[in-house]
Amino acid sequence: MNGRRILIVGATSAIAEATARLYAVRGDALFLVARDARRVQAVAEDLRVRGAASVQTGTLDVADFAAHADTIESACAALGGLDIVLIAHGTLPDQSRCESDTDLALREFAINGTATIALASRIARKLEAQGSGTLAVISSVAGDRGRASNYLYGSAKAAVSAYLSGLRQRLSAPDINVLTIKPGFVDTPMTAAFRKGALWAKPEQIARGIVRAIDRRRGVVYLPWFWRPIMFTIRAIPESLFRRIRL
Amino acid sequence: MDDGLQSWGRYPTAQQSLLRLRDRFAPLPAFDGHALPRGNGRSYGDVCLDDGGTLLDVRGLDRFIDFDPATGVLRCEAGMLLGTILELLVPRGWFLPVVPGTCFVTVGGAIANDVHGKNHHAVGSFSCHVQCFELLRSDGTRRVCSLNENADWFAATVGGLGLTGLITWVELQLRPVAGAWFDTETRRFDRLDDFFELSETSARSFEYTVAWVDCTTRGSALGRGVFSRANHCAAPPTAKLPREGRLRMPVVSPFSLVNGPTLRVFNWQHFHRAPKTLQQSPQHYRPWLFPLDGIRDWNRMYGPRGFLQYQCVLPPAVARDGMRELLERIAASGQGSFLAVLKQFGAIVSPGLLSFPRPGTTLALDFANRGRVTFELLDRLDDIVVAAGGAVYPAKDARMSGERFRTYFPAWRQFEAFIDPAFSSGFWRRVMQ
Ligand SMILES: Cc1cc2nc3c(=O)[nH]c(=O)nc-3n(C[C@H](O)[C@H](O)[C@H](O)COP(=O)(O)OP(=O)(O)OC[C@H]3O[C@@H](n4cnc5c(N)ncnc54)[C@H](O)[C@@H]3O)c2cc1C
Ligand SMILES: NC(=O)c1ccc[n+]([C@@H]2O[C@H](COP(=O)([O-])OP(=O)(O)OC[C@H]3O[C@@H](n4cnc5c(N)ncnc54)[C@H](OP(=O)(O)O)[C@@H]3O)[C@@H](O)[C@H]2O)c1
After folding, report:
1. Residues of A with active-site annotation
2. What backbone phi and psi angles, to 5 degrees, belong to A5?
3. pLDDT at position B62, please?
4. Potential cystine with B215: which of A82, B103, B172, B340 (Cβ 3.0-4.6 Å)?
5. What does the angle CA B222 – CA B223 – CA B229 come to, to the nearest 5 degrees?
6. Which residue of B has its CA nearest to A191?
7. Mean of pLDDT values over A12-35
């Protein structure tokens, strides 16, 4: 499989960049969207040398909802169709600041939740019209259950996961796939301030998992795999007990 | 896990914080006190450590920028690993002109130590093939440096041990090759003199030459070893690709696995297994150039106290006698390592003020850190090197005295003016004492 047409939103993310490199080596054509023009250009240059058939770029701040449609249109036109779309942008909001500042909480929710859903819904219509393609979205294990330490982020990711689950049911055409990606702890700029332990993964490892899950047309993937049993256990804890522990 | 806080020799230890760089256009991040660029930490001693300071981790600057398949000119960010370049470009017919004995080093690190390879006699050091690079200083200024532009900054930064500023991107001239393979020839030799003869007769027709030397034998067997030479070649018809190294030293051994008995057994075997007369064999570049990369984290076998590597060069006129004296000392001490390497450097001048490679014979080997006895032995080796007018390699050093460093590298005075006022390293503070 190569020569596919791939759109990546949030292409300067560490996980997205590592994923894009795997596609570049395969000789795919890419359209990269990110908010920082110079940095996305640097990613594009790298992918060209690595072997991408072509790389084009666009800029988008996902909080600018009015710009979504144009960005997707221009990517579609430039690539001549979409085989794979990866939505990867995200922020890790400061939970305690979100508690004292509701406007901040809503802005963060918009970036991680509403904007992702808005992009997904527009892209879903494109894939439906084409009758084919994969929409892969990076959600998070944090969306599986709200926890005191990051429930604003978690609730936005929960919204995304639930939205994608419904979308997957609706788009039942055989050549269309919707993939929900749920990484655990990943060592990226987003988590630079955290102490890293044994559960942490590198973006390259997550990227390989994303490509494999897309190739195999999976619905939901936990990355690395061990987060599936961990989250199963966490979800199984009765609320009466869960409210008394700190996670 | 590689937390970036040790060097490859796992000696000395240092306390420092780590800031990761990912954007080559951004100014340096804010830090307290002093800082030092950090590549992949494959230096053995303290040139890549900054106790009490901040390491600016360059490994996230790992993007290609441009490659011209017509000329072989590659531009990439400074944190790019040499192994990644080879993986991508060897199949397209291009090779790095110079590689050290591991492919897990960054381009920036290779420049900052002006590293050499088994082909030094034919092509010189790494920096001889660097066309230009960008140097970012802590005051925010950026300079493109080459032999023609900011030539003084080029000479200071090449071999400059990370002290002149941070290299953000680099432009390299690659060399064309017919394939990923080497035509190699190997035979053992019984005496040190044979090494010099084999090196001399091989220098013209073989681009790569190197010898392993048995550092445990004395008397008539002093300086016996195994000589190898090679040239690039296309894949042989029966080529089997080597498997990726899966071996790994999983934990730090509680004591050094390298000690008197294991050393003698290993060295005896290694010598006697080698062919008596020249034997040819095709080898893929990975096992031939980077044999140690097959065992990940092999440095852990030296135990919790780590090890010291010692590499020196002696000028041609005194190399034979000097090497004999060094090997005699080492064998008498009963210390030393499995892998002692001898190599003839060529006459091509290294471009850096503090570059290590210079004409003569170089010897490199590891010593398990046994405390005072080891440090004393290395001081005695230094006595021989100083008397011979040679030098010791900073990239592998954790203990040479400041006085000796300044004798080996008299250009340090000119160099000082180029040091970034916010940069420092454990090595530099030590040798300026
Ligand atoms: C198994 C093994 C075999 C080796 N064989 C050889 C050999 O054959 N020949 C040889 O010459 N060396 C050899 N070495 C040593 C190694 O090649 C050098 O120490 C090399 O410089 C390590 O590069 P690094 O990326 O790990 O840099 P580090 O060790 O992290 O740093 C090295 C120096 O470079 C500086 N630096 C790093 N990046 C930058 C940057 N972007 N800008 C400015 N300064 C920077 C650092 O401050 C430091 O002073 C070997 C090492 C090992 C472990
Ligand atoms: N790291 C983890 O532990 C982890 C775990 C689970 C899920 N995830 C998810 O993985 C995805 C990728 O994150 P990462 O870990 O790779 O972190 P990252 O490198 O920090 O990437 C985050 C990206 O989102 C972009 N972004 C943020 N706000 C934006 C906006 N308003 N408009 C456009 N782009 C915006 C950032 O752009 P700039 O580069 O311009 O800042 C950056 O490229 C995210 O969805 C994250 O939630 C991460």
Report:
1. 153
2. -105, 120
3. 98
4. B340
5. 155
6. B20
7. 98
